[in-house]
Specification:
The structure is a homodimer. Chain A is 24% helix and 27% strand. By secondary structure, chain A is α+β, with helices and mostly antiparallel strands. Chain A has 2 domains: 8-146, Nucleoside Triphosphate Pyrophosphohydrolase (Alpha-Beta Complex); 152-213, Orthogonal Bundle (Arc Repressor Mutant, subunit A). The two termini of chain A are 21 Å apart. The interface between A and B is large, with 46 and 46 residues. Chains A, B: InterPro entries: NUDIX_hydrolase-like_dom_sf, NUDIX_hydrolase_dom, WH-like_DNA-bd_sf, WH_DNA-bd_sf, WHD_NrtR. Chains A, B: GO terms for molecular function: hydrolase activity. Chains A, B: It holds the Pfam family WHD_NrtR. Chains A, B: Residues 8-144 form the Nudix hydrolase domain.
Amino acid sequence: MNGQIGAALAVSTVIFALRPDLESGFSTLWLPLVRRTREPYLDQWALPGGGLPTDEELAGAAARTLRETTGLTPKYLEQLYTFGDPGRSPGGRVVSVVYWALVESDEAALAVVDKNVQWFSADHLPPLAFDHNRIVEYALWRLRTKVEYSRIAHAFLGETFTLAQLREVHEAVLQKALDPANFRRTIESSGTVVDTGQRVAGVPHRPPRLYRYNDSVHAVDSGALEPAIG
Amino acid sequence: MNGQIGAALAVSTVIFALRPDLESGFSTLWLPLVRRTREPYLDQWALPGGGLPTDEELAGAAARTLRETTGLTPKYLEQLYTFGDPGRSPGGRVVSVVYWALVESDEAALAVVDKNVQWFSADHLPPLAFDHNRIVEYALWRLRTKVEYSRIAHAFLGETFTLAQLREVHEAVLQKALDPANFRRTIESSGTVVDTGQRVAGVPHRPPRLYRYNDSVHAVDSGALEPAIG
């Protein structure tokens, strides 16, 4: 760690939530973006974020800038990757430590929405400021890889859920329809969920069973995305 | 990405290789460390690394500082995590982007070893400079988690290997003995390795079969540790 050379440091955050696609009605991944109010990239959409003050933890700066712009305070906010290509920002090198989070729909509904903060479908983004399209693509890739071997889908669901709700999360993340019977067999044989013995209230005829995650199964991830470190 | 505030940026690298434990003879994880030749932490051991020049890619800086100090040029060098606690470096904040790599024993044997570069057993480290003990602990944790669901062990092996060699890698990483018959059944049923039809040369009586990784199986990771991005 000799001879460090100063560089501008920033944090940015990718937040995913499930929302219905406006055309198909199926759940898809959405994320909030913030309109830039200064150059460079004036008026273009960008990930929530900002510069890193000298005395603030990286995760703290990510949480604060996210809260200030969108009003969101996700339970899980974890480091995704650090982007530092010399040419990624005009007018001087900026290294961005990127965090990410998944939020439940109820939580997502609390986000600020105005002319400078809006939700976009993750697979239909406009050209974003800086290399933020590439950052979102990387986050999507990580999410789609992780959903297959971890309980990451849990972050989108409440404490209990139906198998149909769990399947819907997998379908939204993987962008493909899954056969309900096959999905049920796969999930049940994995042992990752437990039948709570309860059923959805207020459904008169054959209400669906409610499941919860099986905490006794070793989770690859301890949090939503990546284990907390420390 | 407004209002970025300058901070010192550095890169460091954790390199793991398998070497026999000096007492037990069993394979264990080792890593090369570099003795610091200046303050702070003069004469203490530290991860290979250095400051980030303005025009160098993060991964390029990690590879260069690693090569300059240890002579190693790993095939896979991937981003692990960015450490940026305000108090982690005396005399001014330093944010370190940490890379990691796994190297085969043949490659590790080419590393420079002198009074300022030495290999240490990953589980028996002296107090290192800065927060480097914590960084190594985090890397070990990630490695031990990943070996269970990815083909990460491959990075320690050549193109073909015996099941005993593969088991030895898992044993070294997980720090526990694995039953050979159970391990064989688990690996064979996973479909992740393929019998090449060849056997180890030069062994007259029942030479062990040689296997290779099954490239048609979806790999969670495309490289050694983390998929390349870009």
